[in-house]
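Known limitations

Structure tokens in this collection are predictions and should be treated as such. Users comparing against experimental data should check residue numbering before alignment. To illustrate the layout, the record for Succinate dehydrogenase is reproduced below. The input appears on top and the generated tokens appear beneath it.
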Amino acid sequence: MTAAELAAPRSPQRPARRGNLEKWGWIYMRVSGVLLVVLIFGHLLVNLVLPEGGVHALDFAFVAGKMADPFWQWWDVLMLWLAFIHGANGMRVIVNDYVQGRAVRKTLVWVIGIVAALMIVLGTLVVFTFDPCAGVFGPFENPDSALFEVCQAAAAK
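Generated tokens:
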């Protein structure tokens, strides 16, 4: 087989840039993957294994208690950010590998980035603005709830 018979490989979509974004994306995937394994197994251990009663101890009060602690807020936000960026970067690589049309590929990469950014912003807002007493008072007030007394005492302060 001669060189003339071989098909030319696909040329890169754009010229190589200084800084090599693909290299940093590859490194990010490895580092974030290791960090995510630690964060997720720590999350599972603390939420499902260590509490007295195991998974049966997991209820709204347990989550509300964790969300009141800045350490667990930052743990969950770090896990959220790493997971969404890791997943979006993986989807970007898949789109770049399999989508042939330049315009479609560019559109899909933008959509992935916008959706990931939106979910990161919304998830971060939920973690840092979580208020367990938000639905306790008002039309759905339930005086029999264990949370009702705690929220009533907090509101009186």
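For this record: Residues 21-49 form the longest helix (29 residues). The two ends are 85 Å apart (CA to CA). Please report discrepancies through the issue tracker.
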